[in-house]
């Protein structure tokens, strides 16, 4: 066997030896990564860190402590329209506790045979209540496009700030729903067969 062949054989042995070590290290790294998950959970449980639902806590303790259950405010809902549609709340009023997340649904029906763009503008009574009425989700946040004869239910998620003055017992939320730009109506009147 020549010296070159011996050198190549040694190189192969060293390469195979290195490859074996790298494979063992890779397997150990993956095993360590998988082992970290239960170890992390155990450490978090022991230290009380990052526990989403601690054991032995009642539903009352988990509820929102910002809700003022000693007060009830009546919220009345109203709808005004400026256009050819039906627009109304699904309920006329509801009683809520300040701080409590609540949902109301408004219904709208486009009674025309063409598409319309519309926008809702809210108003509040008494006016001082506006800064305490917090909407998380509302159809009034953006323009609505209604297809011909489309009926749609649109939710409003809100809560009343617990800092609402104690003398406010009733709040009226009123929406005015009107057509934006009148572009849809103008386009519909230009269609063939319409005058």
Automatic annotation (TrEMBL):
Gene3D superfamilies: Ctag/Cox11 (2.60.370.10)
Entry's transmembrane regions: 21-40
UniProt topology in membrane: Single-pass type II membrane protein
Taxonomy, superkingdom: Bacteria
Record's keyword terms, sorted: Copper, Membrane, Signal-anchor, Transmembrane, Transmembrane helix
Record bears the keyword Membrane: yes
InterPro entries reported in the protein's UniProt record: CtaG/Cox11_dom_sf, Cyt_c_oxidase_assmbl_CtaG
Keyword Transmembrane: yes
Compartments where found: Cell inner membrane
PANTHER family: CYTOCHROME C OXIDASE ASSEMBLY PROTEIN COX11, MITOCHONDRIAL-RELATED, CYTOCHROME C OXIDASE ASSEMBLY PROTEIN COX11-RELATED
Its job: Exerts its effect at some terminal stage of cytochrome c oxidase synthesis, probably by being involved in the insertion of the copper B into subunit I.
Assigned protein family: Belongs to the COX11/CtaG family.
Annotated protein name in UniProt: Cytochrome c oxidase assembly protein CtaG
